Amino acid sequence: MASITLEGLRKTYAGDVHAVKGIDLAIEDGEFVVLVGPSGCGKSTLLRMVAGLETITGGTLKIGDRVVNKLEPAERDIAMVFQNYALYPHMTVYNNLAYGLKNRGFKKPEIEERVRKAAKMLEIEEYLERKPRKLSGGQRQRVAMGRALVREPAAFLFDEPLSNLDAKLRVQMRVEIKQLQRRLKTTSLYVTHDQLEAMTLGDRLVVLSAGKIEQVGTPMEIYARPASMFVAGFIGSPAMNMVPLEYLQTRGTTDLLNDLPPGTDTVGIRPDDMRLSPPNTPHLIVESTLELFEAAGAESHLYVRLADSDQPTVIRVSGQPPVNEGETLRFFVTREALHPFNSATGLRTG
Amino acid sequence: MQTKRSTYQNRWLPFFLLAPQLAITLVFFIWPASQAVKSSFERTDAFGFKTTFVGLDNYARILADPSYLNALGRTAIFSISVTVLSMSLALLLAVCVNRVLKSAKFYTTLLVWPYAVAPVVAGVLWWFLFNPTIGLLPHLLDWFGISWNHRVSGTQAMILITIAAAWKQISYNFLFFLAGLQSVPQSLMEAAAIDGAGPFKRFWTIVLPLLSPTTFFLLIININYVMFDTFGVIDATTAGGPGQATMTLVYKVYTDGVAGLNIGSSSAQSVMLMGIVIILTFIQFRYVERRVNY
């Protein structure tokens, strides 16, 4: 077990393509950090640089106290779980797990013991003699995890390990990964483009965009105070609504807009912070037309268009309110629900 | 996989469209082959006036003939050496080309060229290179104290046809090995690298086992090639000589039948050759294929 420290880590490809533009990040020993961002934001490249599968153009990478920039993947004491699992198709599950130990010169009894232990932990004992092609997606996923586990490495690296599973299995494996990591307390770096996966798994999230860090923090910190419009739009589902400040200023009671930080020209409001009934605290009242009603079981999504504007907006309410498509809806927003942004810089103003 | 079923308005049209291919197969393959089987049970006198049915006599004779048994042994050595040589060199070249990124196409094109050369031309080419009088290679070998004359030395003649036959087949094997290598997922190599396997270990424990279906397929193709298609190479270089040193089964079929006019024996030999290849292929499918499935 070890910490992982990234100092100004950069990756440039031929033709002046900057995939990773100077990342500073300190991952503590035993921490579960999730790298999240849209495709092409450099998160996988960054993970592969930590693994040693991509060369490092600039900066320093430390695992524990060791600078590992130039070390081979095998010498970095890390284990990786791949998106397509990358199981060796010609080996049994047992040999898939044992391969890394054999290569490191472990003795047979020790290999046997470690493989059995990992298999027991992941409940794949009965498949040990099977070949990967005879396993289901979820079982393959477990074997891939087992292969990382048996090595007892300093850190686990996960490259979108759940994206090939169906929705139900994905939730189940997500919970298991989290429990496993809690139990083993192995430093983990996890890459995903799924914000829900990121929110639920990580001790801390790193939101990346275009090769740069947008924000680092605990999931709730990031959800409660997104540092930029990008983060605000990326974390949370449905995405945060962005409303021009000018528009709100033309809507009746606007006293509570006065104390917004200087520079604010756009206000973000989470779909759940738009209330259909007036709260006790001072609030804004906005009129809109209900265009589409979407019942999702425990909650409903109301797609509305703000009055005198063509701004599409989503409201999330629990249960199923008695509303009809086409009717005029009034919703209420308190000061605490407003996230102030500057649209030119894209950053939060305060 | 589902293939699309074509429907024809006229029920005779599909037969008409197939006819040329069927005719060619019938005239140039089925008919001569059945003639060979038929004449392997017959004996014709020297002037071709009288043909008598002799049953299995032709087969009994060739199996008792030491020169046939010698050819059998020689063919075994020849096919093993050509197969091993051409497959191992092809794999080596494929691994090299698979490593370069930019010029891979260029090398592939160059390496495939020999396949376009007709066997006889390939034979002539190597015959020139190894020609004891005017060839370049005997001249070079002389520096190392090796006196090269495949017209005299049977072993050297065998080496010559092995090189010529293998050289031609390397292209074919190379293409298949390259395709096989390219279909090994990159993530497996990366996983193995993280699992602590160096480049050589990765090759032996991951790449080679994953290539085994390709290797198996090529093994069968190569043995078939050596058994039948090396006639041109042998005819152009050593013509079975010196003595009988490079007389393989397929060349003996030709020598006894076309040159020696012993049609009965030659037919029996060609039927035997076909039988040997069928049995070998069967054995390979039966015992080797089981190991290459994963």
TrEMBL record, chain A:
InterPro entries according to UniProt: AAA+_ATPase, ABC_transporter-like_ATP-bd, ABC_transporter-like_CS, ABC_transpr_MalK-like, ABC_transpr_MalK/UgpC-like, Mo/tungstate-bd_C_term_dom, NA-bd_OB-fold, P-loop_NTPase
Gene Ontology cellular component list: ATP-binding cassette (ABC) transporter complex, substrate-binding subunit-containing
GO biological process, one term: carbohydrate transport
Coiled-coil stretches noted in the UniProt entry, renumbered to this chain: none
Molecular function per GO: ABC-type transporter activity; ATP binding; ATP hydrolysis activity
Protein name: sn-glycerol-3-phosphate import ATP-binding protein UgpC
Keywords: ATP-binding, Cell inner membrane, Cell membrane, Membrane, Nucleotide-binding, Sugar transport, Translocase, Transport
ABC transporter domain residues: 4-235
One Pfam family recorded for the sequence: ABC_tran
CDD domains: ABC_MalK_N
NCBIfam families, per the entry: PRK11650.1
TrEMBL record, chain B:
Ranges annotated as spanning the membrane: 12-31, 76-98, 110-130, 157-181, 202-223, 271-288
Membrane topology label: Multi-pass membrane protein
SUPFAM superfamilies in the cross-refs: MetI-like (SSF161098)
Sequence ranges assigned to domain ABC transmembrane type-1 in this UniProt record: 72-284
Compartment list: Cell inner membrane; Cell membrane
Keyword field: Cell inner membrane, Cell membrane, Membrane, Transmembrane, Transmembrane helix, Transport
Alphabetical GO biological process terms: transmembrane transport
Family matches, as InterPro entries: MetI-like, MetI-like_sf, UgpAE/MalFG_permease
One Gene Ontology term, aspect cellular component: plasma membrane
Family: Belongs to the binding-protein-dependent transport system permease family. UgpAE subfamily.
Subunit structure: The complex is composed of two ATP-binding proteins (UgpC), two transmembrane proteins (UgpA and UgpE) and a solute-binding protein (UgpB).
Name of this protein: sn-glycerol-3-phosphate transport system permease protein UgpA
